[in-house]
Amino acid sequence: QQQVKQSPQSLIVQKGGIPIINCAYENTAFDYFPWYQQFPGKGPALLIAIRPDVSEKKEGRFTISFNKSAKQFSLHIMDSQPGDSATYFCAAGRLAGNMLTFGGGTRLMVKP
Amino acid sequence: DVKVTQSSRYLVKRTGEKVFLECVQDMDHENMFWYRQDPGLGLRLIYFSYDVKMKEKGDIPEGYSVSREKKERFSLILESASTNQTSMYLCASSLVQTNQPQHFGDGTRLSIL
Lengths: 112, 113
Description:
The complex is a heterodimer of chains A (112) and B (113).
Chain A: E1 4-7, E2 10-14, E3 20-25, E4 33-38, E5 45-50, E6 56-59, E7 62-67, E8 72-77, E9 86-93, E10 100-102, E11 106-111
Chain B: E1 4-6, E2 10-13, E3 19-25, E4 31-38, E5 42-51, E6 54-57, E7 64-70, E8 73-78, E9 87-94, E10 103-104, E11 108-112
């Protein structure tokens, strides 16, 4: 049973497009929502994270939107580049804890 | 830079063998984690350790055990390997304070024949 559901599983966009990856969670105790980026042959690395006291967070071309009432959050990549081609994982956890529950991952390809 | 090193990139073992996967981190992190990564299932936590000799079960601990005798080293043990344990295994470490990112190794691709 997956507590964090991520969609889509794969995504292809043209350079400059805005891919959007969505996640939904079930556990209302979650209060920390990071996104990890994984390139082929490498381990995941933290990209950006949000807490539920804000509805949006931007870091460079990456934006997280958060909807607490719907228990959903999403990652937008502005002006996407071929170098953004990677697998993206959303995750959820508790600030008071140490463990994260990951979504199933989205394989993004940005075509030149 | 934080470095998490997994001992093997690729490993092939036989059904029934006892398999050891080793992970070492160089940043004095308290927390260490073992995940397995399967397509469509994301990262699933096998075991977590928050201190030497301390461990907690994750979501899928069955068929696995762990050992943490030193702070920098966390071992995953497959007691009797089975074909359904063929997967990518990822080790991670983090500081114990909240909001601290998990730093991952590059993974071990394990095949059980």
